[in-house]
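Subject: Riboflavin biosynthesis protein RibD

B.,
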Amino acid sequence: MLRLLFYFCEVNIHQKYILRSIELGKKGLGSTAPNPMVGCVIVHNEKIIGEGYTSPYGGPHAEVNAINSVRDKSLLQEATLYVTLEPCSHYGKTPPCADLILAHKIPEVVIGIKDPHDKVAGKGIEKLEASGCKVTIGVLENECREHLKRFLTYQQQKRPYIILKWAETADGFIAPDPNMRKTNPEPFWITNPYSKQLVHKWRSQEQAILVGTNTMLEDNPKLNTREWAGKSPIRVVLDKDLKIGSHFHVMDRSVKTLVITQIEEKSKYFDGINYEMIDFSKPIAAQICAILYRHSITSVIVEGGARTLQTFMDAGLWDEARIFKAQKFFAKGIAAPRILGKLRSEESILSDTLYIYTHD
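Prediction pasted inline below.
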């Protein structure tokens, strides 16, 4: 009975520090991709002596930052390192984290989940255990998987984590009747300014944003981050026949832009813009995902229009849908897509309601 009680106390302690590691890892959202946003905590005698999370892409990993934050390095030989994802065992842009852990003779490592990357995939754990390190795996595994969902989707499904996003009126329209554009060519804002700011926060957190041709031609959006501090996502534009001219905002080269087209004639391409070709006579969602995967894009927000959103839903290629329902009425226009997914949350943002669905 005493041994069982000790076991549960140990598990609860492990969960406490893995939760803190997840909290730390979130600080890397929007900056670490295509690397995962990992968090790490180092504990000595039930006291945290070091913390770290993954630096912006190309910089040190979470374990390196946590170890470097420890003032008295001699304590590491009696400490436990907690990390949300298996320490890497290969050379990439930085040396292997498993080697650093062993170099400092850290005797115990607690890991949230194994790394599915083919260059790691248990090799980090094997290296640690072979050197006598005690390794515990699978603490708060579900929570770590949710936290690392972008990286895991990219590694396991060979595509980015796909977020569908749109706003619709109270009477179910995603855009006004096309005739209204003749008198008012400016974008029609359905949601309130606070919802708009939240959308820009999301843009700073994801690697890419994708829209279809009609959305570009009708709204001429900038697709950058303006209402929130942070980086702008890679702009991905579907332009089958290259109708989008140089005067459109997305062609200003201020942000990396990828145009997906069927036109092979490179004389029609603009300098400073990336082009990829697909076959528009075949289902396009999977082809787009393959291109984004090749460009190391681990997450993308699909912002519209209705046809583009429906294309991803019909193909079953989406993970999350974020839908704003506003109080405006259009009476007629372009109908919003109908989502089939699991409602995860519902939140009021002044006059708007935000619904989050997952594709379970």
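The two ends are 40 Å apart (CA to CA).

T.
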